[in-house]
TrEMBL record:
Name of the protein in its database record: Mitogen-activated protein kinase kinase kinase 17-like
Native species: Prunus avium (Cherry)
InterPro entries: Kinase-like_dom_sf (IPR011009), Plant_MAPKKK (IPR052751), Prot_kinase_dom (IPR000719), Ser/Thr_kinase_AS (IPR008271)
Domain Protein kinase: 1-221
Pfam families per the UniProt record, alphabetical: Pkinase
Taxonomic classification: Eukaryota, Viridiplantae, Streptophyta, Embryophyta, Tracheophyta
GO molecular function, one term: protein kinase activity
Coiled-coil region(s): none
Cited PANTHER family: CCR4-NOT TRANSCRIPTIONAL COMPLEX SUBUNIT CAF120-RELATED, PROTEIN KINASE DOMAIN-CONTAINING PROTEIN
GO biological process: signal transduction
Top-rank taxon, per record: Eukaryota
Length: 221
């Protein structure tokens, strides 16, 4: 079990997250909500709000990506994690919520079983429901596959620089070394026109997130 704790007087964000997570109990692709309580520090009588969550033994997806030192994850693992994330997003959307900050740091890895993981030894679960920025799903998926952010931004670029690139209909380069299915999946995610861009439901039906075929490449170069 993992516990998020903060002073009760500063706990509005965590209490908000606790309320949202309580609506997702039972989803295998969202971090598990285990309860909440208020405790008191004996020597100061200060009240602390505690949120109990499932413990991610595999760390974050960001940590896993960094461990590959820019080479990208095996494509079979990316398929599996992507499907987990899409399933989690669909559940969140069906509960009338939008995550709004989906990125590798907010995706936690839990030991898997064969019923939910596909080829990976971990299941990716969505966490951190306290932020309100625009969704970052496409950034996450491209970074996992490539081992780096998908847009070619300068190291000191600002958020405004990135927004200008997106508003100017500049899409990231899709590398040729990944499989045809992976390229097609990313193109469906990154389509500039909204009517061409796949929804979560449609992405779940894409062959890329189905069981990998033996004839397709399985590792990044």
């Amino acid at each position: 079990m993992a516990v998020k704790s903060t002073k009760l007087s500063d706990s509005e964000s965590i209490q908000h997250e606790a309320g949202i997570l309580s609506d997702f109990i039972g989803s295998p692709f969202v971090i598990q909500y285990l309860g909440e309580e208020i405790t008191t520090i004996d020597d100061t009588s200060e009240e602390i709000f505690n949120l109990a969550l499932g413990f991610a033994a595999g760390g974050t997806l960001d940590g896993l990506i960094q461990s590959y030192r820019g080479h990208g994850l095996p494509e079979s693992d990316v398929r599996s994690y992507t499907r987990c994330i899409l399933e989690g997003l669909l559940h969140i959307h069906n509960c009338d919520y939008v995550h709004c900050d989906l990125k590798p740091e907010n995706l936690l890895l839990f030991p898997s079983d064969t019923s939910t993981s596909g080829s990976s030894s971990f299941v990716a679960k969505i966490a951190d429901f306290g932020l309100t920025r625009a969704p970052k799903m496409i950034w996450m998926d491209g970074e996992a596959r490539l081992g780096k952010p998908p847009w070619d931004v300068e190291p000191n670029s600002t958020l405004d620089d990135f927004i200008d690139m997106v508003a100017g209909e500049i899409t990231p380069k899709i590398p040729t070394e990944i499989s045809g299915l992976a390229r097609d999946f990313l193109m469906k995610c990154l389509a500039v026109n909204s009517w061409e861009r796949f929804t979560t439901q449609k992405l779940l039906l894409h062959p890329f997130v189905q069981e990998p075929q033996l004839s397709e490449p399985g590792h990044a170069k």
